Amino acid sequence: MPPRPPLQTLNLASPKRAVIGPAAFFAKVFLNVYCKRTRTLNEQRLFRTVLDRTDRPVITVANHSSVLDDPGMWGILPWSILLHKHRMRWSLGAKEICFGTPFTSWFFGSGQVIPTVRGDGVFQPAIDVALAKLAHNGWIHIFPEGKVNQLRDQLPYRWGVGRLILESPQPPLVLPIWHRGFEAAMPEDAPDGRYYPRPGKELVVAVGEVMDFATNGVLEEANALGDEAKARAFVTAFVREKAIEAQRQAEKKIGEPDWWTTTGAVKAVNDDPPRQGDPS
C-alpha cells in the first residue's frame, strides 16, 4: 500500500455573524414562509445531540437533492444552535461551486463550509480539516452521495464519511437525515429551463436514530478486516444502510410511500442495493 500523504490544512475564513445570521434567517423563512408546509420528524434527536454532547464529535449525513439542502434544511434548528458558531455544523461543499469567486469563497467560508474537490479522494485537505474539527468535538455535516441526486434512492456513498468515522480521535455520534421536497423546490430539469426556488412546495425533514460508534461494535468489525480501504467501505456501507432505514421509516410515517410516483417530481429506481461506493 502506498504511503499516506501528510495531513493538510486549508486557509478558511473565520465564521462571521454577517453570514451566519442572514443564512439562518433565510433558512427559517424558506421553510416556514416560502414553502407551503414543512413537516419534521424526530428533530429532537438532532437538537439534543448537538446541545447536550460536550465531549463527543458529531457527524450528520443526508441525501443531496438540490443546492437548497444546505442551508435550507437547517431552518428546523432552534436559534440557540443556528446563531452559535461553536454549535453549528461545518459542512463539506464543492469547491468549484461554492468557492469559484473571491466573494463566494468569503461567503461560504464564513458560513463554515469546507472547500472539497470532488474526485480527489479521501486523502485531500477537506477531509483532514474535517478531522481536525472532530478532534475538537465539532459537528461535521456531509452529503455522502457526492452530488445532487433527484431520484428516489440514494446513490452509493463516497468513502470520505468512512474515513471521518474511523479516524476521528473519539468515536463519533452519527445521525442520518432524510429530506423530501427540495427536489421539487429546485428541480434540476425545470420545464421552463429557469433555475430558481419554486414557492409553495411541501417539505419533509426527518432525523434517523443516533449511531454511537463507541458502543455499536462497527469500528471493531471494520478494523478486524485488516485493510484500510475495506474498513472504510464497511463503515460507509453501514452508514448508508442506516440512512436508507431512516428514509423508509419516514416515508411510512408520513403515509406516502409512493410520493415519488404520484407527484411526478422525481422518478423511482429499483430497490436493489447499488454497487459499493468508490473512494473519490
UniProtKB/TrEMBL annotation:
This is Tafazzin family protein. SUPFAM superfamilies: Glycerol-3-phosphate (1)-acyltransferase. It comes from the Eukaryota. The lineage of its organism: Eukaryota, Fungi, Fungi incertae sedis, Chytridiomycota, Chytridiomycota incertae sedis. InterPro entries: Plipid/glycerol_acylTrfase, Tafazzin. It is found in: Mitochondrion inner membrane; Mitochondrion outer membrane. GO terms for cellular component: mitochondrial inner membrane; mitochondrial outer membrane. Belongs to the taffazin family. Residues 58-182 form the Phospholipid/glycerol acyltransferase domain. It catalyses: 1'-[1,2-diacyl-sn-glycero-3-phospho],3'-[1-acyl-sn-glycero-3-phospho]-glycerol + a 1,2-diacyl-sn-glycero-3-phosphocholine = a cardiolipin + a 1-acyl-sn-glycero-3-phosphocholine. Residues 250-280 are annotated as: Disordered. Residues 269-280 have a biased composition (Basic and acidic residues). GO terms for biological process: cardiolipin acyl-chain remodeling; inner mitochondrial membrane organization. Keywords: Acyltransferase, Lipid metabolism, Membrane, Mitochondrion, Mitochondrion inner membrane, Mitochondrion outer membrane, Transferase. It is a peripheral membrane protein. The keyword Zinc-finger does not apply. Its main location: mitochondrion. GO terms for molecular function: 1-acylglycerophosphocholine O-acyltransferase activity.
